[in-house]
Amino acid sequence: DQSSVIGYVNYILEILPVGLGYSDAERVAPDYRDWDVLASPSPELLVDRLNLLLTGGTLPQATINQVLTAVRSAQETLGVIGVGDVTQTRNRVLVAFFLIMCSPDYLVQR
């Protein structure tokens, strides 16, 4: 139902930058370095790869275009609580993961 989807979206937004765990000692943090390499020269490569791996290449072109627009507009952010400074490249990666993981093509089991 709607509250489950909203809860999921908030959860993903919270864990994508820092991972899972209540303290640094027990945190399981994602390593985005390989994704940063794709995001820097070409956001299209990043979105294409995530589309393939997360949705089996089922994202409609309209969704891909929306994700690319958002990824291209991602900027560096300074002083994010619990994260610190985030580069433009890393923000591109986080935006791409977030939007694809919250899209119906990812959420609906086929």
Task: Compose a concise summary of this entry.
The protein is mainly alpha-helical. The chain has helices at about 1-20, 35-40, 45-55, 60-75, 90-100, 105, and strands at about 75-80, 85. It is about 60% helix and about 5% strand.
Description:
With 110 residues, this protein is mainly alpha-helical. 62% of the residues lie in helices and 6% in strands. It is built from six helices and two strands. The chain has helices at residues 2-18, 33-39, 43-55, 61-73, 88-101, 104-107, and strands at residues 77-80, 84-86. It has a two-stranded antiparallel ribbon. A hairpin with a 3-residue loop joins strand 1 and strand 2. Helix 1 (2-18) runs antiparallel to helix 5, helix 3 (43-55) crosses helix 4 (61-73) and helix 4 packs antiparallel against helix 5. The longest helix is centred in the N-terminal third of the chain and has 17 residues, at 2-18. It is globular, with a radius of gyration of 14 Å. The two termini are 18 Å apart. The model has no long low-confidence stretch (mean pLDDT 86).
